[in-house]
Amino acid sequence: SRYILLHFVQRIKQNQSAGVSFILLGFSEYPHLQVPLFPVFLTSYIITVLGNLGMITIIRLNPKLHTPMYFFLSHLSFVDFCYSSVVTPKLLENLVVEDRSITFAGCVSQFFLICVCVVTETFILAAMAYDRFVAVCNPLLYTVAMSQTLCSLLVAASYFWSMVCSFVFIYYLLSLNFCGTKVINNFVCEHSAIVAVSCSDPYVSQLSLVIITTFNQITSLGIVFTSYVFIFVTVMRMPSTAGRYKAFSTCASHLTAIAIFHGPILFLYCVPTTKSSWLLVEIASIFYSVVVPMLNPLIYSLRNKDVKQAARRLINSQLSCHKS
Question: Residue 30: helix, strand or coil by DSSP?
């Protein structure tokens, strides 16, 4: 690992010394949209920060929410917060300044952190699907099966695998040659936009990204699909309509989060990008980097009675403290 880190540092220094830098084109092609978009993205970022940090705070302070499902949800909120904080501040800056340049090291670092967040969230959502499977199909063994040790291992494995994938992506990305100042046709340092401005053949880098991303998608969605097949079969065997409704309602938020997260990822990394589809790539990038982190806490809070009750109690207790 030390050799790999030294290799990364050396390659970054070589490109920096060669004067390699990037300009994030962003929305400069649509100058009439930049001013209206700034308050929109700023508002979404504020909602994302308050929503995700609020979710983490509520889960940590309420003993009733110290369960495996909310343990995974707190880490999902943490990843969403980090993800949005990596992307949105730079996006907001580029909407109001003329100099949209970013250093080579800054661009590579942003891409690395994005990869870590995306892969981690992918497998945390899969772990949450397994948690719902155990809760619905084996409720009597739920406490034993979803032990704190297992939950911690699943989360740790998600973070570890995300780091492995990100280092592989960066390794092949740094194997490319870059020259001078290049314009990146995106508002974020996204892989396809970076390799498009390289001065060497990006085939190996693109192939490694497609293979690993496809593997991650198939593995995580396979876990999700298998879990929900068993959940569906178990729920349909329930004699009570109320029981079926309750079981499905507990899974609805998770299924919604999976749908809005995996859709753009599949489009961006598992479908070849052509020159005519750059606008769609930007839209998909906005959706999964700005909108998804904002929606997740709203999805889980608005549809979850326990979270809403805990939030009310927390707010009421804070108001009582201020009044006293």
Answer: coil
